[in-house]
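Ticket #333: bound-state structure for tryptophanyl-5'AMP.
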Amino acid sequence: KQRVLTGITTTGTPHLGNYVGAIRPAIEASRADDTESFLFLADYHALIKCQDPAMVRQSSKEIAATWLALGLDTERAVFYRQSDVPEITELTWILCCNAAKGLMNRAHAYKAAVQANEEAGEDPDFGVTMGLFSYPVLMAADILLFGAHQVPVGRDQVQHVEMARDIAQRFNHNFAELFTLPSAVVDDNVALLQGLDGRKMSKSYNNTIPLFLPEKQLRKSINKIKTNLLEPGEPKNPDDSTVFQIWAAFASAGETARMRREFEAGIAWGEAKKQLFELINDELSAPRERYLQLLDDPSHIEQVLQRGAERARSYSMPLLKQVREAVGIARMD
Ligand code: TYM
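RESOLUTION: The complex was predicted; output attached.
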């Protein structure tokens, strides 16, 4: 069976980019008979970017409710919270002792922080924690501990999956062939969804459209998507338009082709945005109802997560035992 695994960092409210880049493809994959899915809340990853405990807690609840509201079948998929599986952090240390520092120096998130410091004339490592530096190793542990073959992610996470692959290869070579080599799975239609300002939709850019905004606010938010100044009737280039890009991430191939023609025929921005709102709202209004109900029932969510952690550990414990033995850490009797 193919194993599919992905996680979402518990900082902030899930947005359309998380949905089309990771959640939707992962839920689709989890329905196939020949796959086993592992889906989790990356709350240890959250500590890297967020020192606000209330935010981490709230976000964990929102992200868990999101997966459930979107119809994840938690009897089939193993759905858990990263911090409930202690084998992940244990494996992280073992991998830290094996992964090359030079490889981590190349990680985008770390490099971006150093570059920002240099541009600001600061010490390059100002504000850079060991957590940020080791982020890809923690992520490698997430992936390798469950023998994932496929990791559905947005394009921004591909490098991390490749690093996990490198780390696995090195371990397999040095000790024992214990790890499966994972591959990133990126949906080409939506490799990286753009946000309100046309940059990558991201919590750190404050340009997101939250997934379960109430209808009125969703309409308002879509109206804020930046467009160029073309008037109704003037032909518009779909390929440099955020409105069109988001449309393509939600619409069928036929509807996308139709919208492309409408753009070229000069559809008014107001009309294009109205249709975009209707498209997204139709897909999300039923899950939005369930989401609101779930947020009111945290003990149900917790129960689901605890059951998931138990199942996750039935996979992680035996593999970690083998890893410990392979590196020479084991009982003597
Ligand atoms: P995170 O929480 O930043 O994002 C979660 C998922 O959403 C995708 N994504 C996007 N996809 C398309 N367009 C966008 N604008 C967009 N923004 C975010 C991300 O690519 C990601 O797939 N480190 C990871 C979480 C993680 C993980 C893992 C993922 C931890 N361990 C193991 C896979 C496997 C992160 O911070 O994603």
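RESOLUTION NOTES: The radius of gyration is 21 Å.
TICKET STATUS: resolved
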